[in-house]
Every structure is written in C-alpha cells, then in structure tokens.
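I had to read the description of the data format several times before I understood it. In essence, backbone conformation is discretised, so a fold becomes a row of integers matching the chain in length. I therefore recommend that a typical entry be quoted early in the introduction. For illustration, here is how one protein appears when written out as sequence plus structure tokens.

***
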Amino acid sequence: MDNNSIFDDESPRLIDILLDPNSTQPIVLMDENGRQISFEQVAVIPKTIDGKKELFVILKPLDELDGIADDEAVVFSVAYDDEDDDVKLNAETREEISHAVFDEYYEMLAEQRKRAGK
C-alpha cells in the first residue's frame, strides 16, 4: 500500500497529519490497484531497529480489507520521500518488527493507564 499523492497542494502533508496529536483526519492510502483506503491513526511509534532509529505508525482500516478483521490494525513503516518533501507509508512485512511495534504500543498504553491511576 502506498500513499501516492491524492490530495491537492492545499491539503496538509501526511507527516503533519501523522504527528498532530489532535488530528482526527483519516489517513487515505492507495493500494496496488489504485483503490483509496481510509485508515484511522492509532499510534505513532519511534523504535530503534538494528541501531537505526525508525518511525512506525499503527493504522486501523476504516474500509474493509481482505485478511484484516474489524478489530485489527496494521503497522506501517514511515519513509521520507525527497521527491514529495513528505513521507510514504509502507506496510511492515517483517513480522518480528510488527510484533515489536505492537509491544511498544501496549507498553505505552499500560504506562498511560498507570499514570491515570487505573
């Protein structure tokens, strides 16, 4: 899945939407067939992989996707695109990385609950 430019020049950049903690705007990506698919942003997770800092996002599909249940989300790696001066999202295919990103997310949730006294 790719986020080829489907917005006009007045639309916010994808990175701005992803990093805005108050954004409720759906993330719209294009699949390999050119179909637009909307996602709800769940989390942005920075993680060091093999000594390299990487950024990942967890997105929940708002549209039906084959092989993904209604209560499931997908991990995407974030890559900077010099050509568009923005980022591209690529579905994370390394299972161990996806699990590590979800583990980090669950740890963040547990810490937030702990701080909230729940």
